Structures are given as structure tokens and as C-alpha cells.
Amino acid sequence: MSITSIQKVIKIGSSAGVTLPARDLKAACISLGDQVEITVTKIQHKNYTDEASPEVVKILNEFMKKYDKALKNLADR
Questions:
Q1: Are 17 and 7 in contact (CB under 8 A)?
Q2: DSSP-assigned letter for residue 20
Q3: Is the pTM of this model over 0.85?
């Protein structure tokens, strides 16, 4: 059985790592200490504003302008 999952690379000390979800390990009958083969492919994220209609971009910009202070306060929490 193979596991296909999108995971974020995280900092582990001075190295980087990727976690394996427990549910996937259980489904694949993989235990701590087992050897596994890993294939890594970087995902290219789309810039959704390139695909958004001008009307949606306009509404989003108006929303951000109107609620700029509230959004900044939420981000600082």
C-alpha cells in the first residue's frame, strides 16, 4: 500500500522534516522502526488572483480596505 499525502516541511533542530499522519501509518501497517521508501515532489501553488475575475478582485480589495484595521488586529493576536 502507498500513502499519498500533502505535508508541510517543518524545522526540526537545524534540519527539516515531514511528518507522517498516524491514520496513514496505521492504514499502511507501518510501525516505528520500519523502513520506507520516500518520493518527494514539490507542489507549485497557483496564484489565484491571476485566475479571479476583475469583479472578485475589486470586491476583495474593497473588503480589505474597509476591514484593514480589524484584519491587522486579528493577525497580531
A1: no
A2: -
A3: no
CA pseudo-torsion sign 15, 21, 25, 26:
positive
Count CB atoms within 10 A of the CB of residue 3. Answer: 14
Count of CB atoms within 10 A of residue 1's CB?
Answer: 7
Which residues face 12 on adjacent strands?
15
pLDDT in tens, 39-72: 888 887 766 656 778 888 899 999 999 999 999 9
Q: What is the number of residues in the chain?
A: 77
Question: Residues 5, 24: contact at Cβ < 8 Å?
Answer: yes
Residue 66 is placed in which grid cell? 474597509
CA atoms within 13 A on the CB side of 77: 6
